[in-house]
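Batch 3, record 17
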Amino acid sequence: MYTRGLLATLAVGLLLSAQLPAVAGSAFPYHLVRRIALPGTGPVHALLFDPRTREIYAAQGRRIAVFSLAGAPLAVRRPLAGTVSALARNGAGEIIAAVRSPAQLVFLSARTLTVEHRRALRAGPPAALLYDRSANMLFVESRSSGSIERVDPRSGQLLGRVRLDSALGQMAGNGRGTLYVANAARDALEVIDAGAMRDAGSIALHRCPGPGALAMDTIGRRLFVGCASGRALIVDADLGFTFVRLPIAGGSKLQAAFAFHPWGAHGWKGGAFFAGSTAVSAIQMQAFVRYRDHGQLLLPTPCTALALAAPVGELWLALAPPSGGRAVLWVLGVDRSEVK
Amino acid sequence: MSRCVTVWRHLAWCALLAVAALSQARARLAPWPALAGKTVLFVTGGTSAPQPNDDALVARHLRELGFQVHTVDARVSPSATRGAALIVISSTADARVLGNKFADSRLPIFTWNTFDYPNLGMTGPVLHRDFDVIDPVQHYADSFSVLYGFGANITSEISRAVGLRPQLFGTLYLEPETAGWGDPGPGGTVVTDFFGSRHYAGVFTYEREATLADGRTAPARRVGFYLGSDNFHLLTAVYGPAAEDPNLRHWAIGLKLFDAALRWAASPPPPESKYDPGALDATLRQAARGKKLLYVERVNGGEGRHSDAHIVAHLRRLGFKVTVADQTAPQSIARGMDLIIISGTCSKWKLANKYVDVPVPLISLEGLLSDALHFSGRDRYVDYGEHGELLESVDPPENYLDIVGAWSPMAAGLKPGLVKFTEHPGVLKWAWPLPDAIVIATLPNEPREDAIFGYPKGARMAGGFIAPARRALLPLDNPSYDQMTAQGKALFDAVVLWTLGR
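Prediction for the assembled complex:
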């Protein structure tokens, strides 16, 4: 299971973190505290923070690596059958890897990454996973077939499917049986009744071309949408009403993450982060109805995945390898004395 | 030849009157495509506008609705309105700089510049009393209250366009916000209000020819809207599955109200009315022919007996099939009728609550029935009352009315201002109806004592009562009919004609 060579490479990468680049945009709350060079030249497609074990999982190509929050490599899973496009953790603590080809879900034990079982997917290569912990629902998105499947989070058994005929982006669940999916083709959020797996309508996103990034607060009332044009919309999910628009760094491959109290009880009430090809942007939740943009941090290469490790105040970014180089993980931390 | 032309003109005028009186009595909203391409003069604060503001968003929205938008600042010359179809005034424009430059404009005006309301004559001049701007700095607590509007009027074109109901709705999104209110004059129509009182109108209108708060006549349509400078983007709306929920759909109507009010302002008003008793008489004859009318009076009463007889004779001459009933007759007698007129000779006590809920158009000539008929509240001499009654009124006898709703066919084409109603001062009744009522005339110098008004079918009346058919008040005390002037008789006929409509 453990690959000694890879661990050595990761350890070398950790040492590189001594040289930290300057942070652009003084208002951005995080700064770079560690940089971890990864062994392969392929991009990291998925990052997952496990709040129970406080470990980070990174899927790079066919491999999955586990890191401690200090950045120490703990384990690397031997290559799976195909490229891992997404990771999730179910209520039992298993890690679920979505493999593109052959399209399947692989259920792994946490930390040791032992394969527990596999389940083939029929809707096509999976592009994203979402585990809605409150509703105990697991969703698999296939962008090639434009469909969302709801599967049993333990067995992977198919429970329902809804076909959406467009370019899909990130998913978010409200914990009460409603799933939202960004649809860049229609500039809308698709709303799915996850219980019946039926299309319940769509929320038009005015003046938001190419919405791809989507996150939701854990209460399930606010949707954070990243538009390719460089706007973040904050949508009241109860009304489908966009009540805040703030500038972010745009791009076609934005990803979003949200957390309440991203660095503890005395920091922000909440923070939404949008990472794309040039920068990561921060939106501060001051109150449920009040938000402000909190600057951007420029990135040397596009971000391919992000994960918030809110309990420890960290934001992890996977950066695409530069030409001829290796993929890098950036670990962003916060100076608590500066963040009010 | 010339006689033939005159006859044709006469007939055309009759047709116009009939259409106006018997249909909705108010012009319908123009469809959006008919407004596309029209130019809006959008008056903003320009470079002096407070920041942040939503003027750019509003301009964009107007363009999305199909208007050509010409943005100017408050220093604009009134001549810049040439070629425009509508003036839209943002609250970012300095009302002191605007002054009264648009007050006489014959273009419709849609404004959320609350401090400019007095300049336009839309409210009185006194801050806090006649108009106010609630903002989270000066009025923190009230700035929560203005998040909740009330559908005060459910039958105006704007109300119908948004499906406004007599209930609360969300005006702006969720945070304490800046919003303005105005207290329009009796010629205005309150569409929505704040704080549980029609005096705090959030959305209100004046039809062309309506009497403004300052006594002048509206040269074109006027709309006041509650918006602040930077919260257009917070006007409520609902999208996605939530829009399938009728409660949410009727709650988040801020943007729909804005659009409907804008559309109403830009739509053509009803044609200007013309005082022509002959044409009115001919139109009414046409409408009355064969219609069944129940005239309720105190049969064999004393005072007013002759007036009743003359009114009935007049109605029969018009072509109505009149049934005369005593005030004590059961309500069932109204079945199958097309119109009910309750005479001023009736005793309120004896009439009891009859005819209140009957789905037949009804005219009351007795103002003191206003509470029983849900025309007004129940506080006698506060919500309704009378002038000139020796022992019951502190107000002197009166024989003039002040026309404030000249635009309505109920006004018989009479121009705004005082009109001699009866030859000699006497008893005149009044009531203070709810905002759904179309007010035609008040008593002179008493802007809230309304003498002639009508509720459309479906209107919200006092006590939450919904009008089952048209209802109207015409203040004709017992013997007054025989003393009516020609204008007074024209008003009588116009009210009968309007009430007979649907």
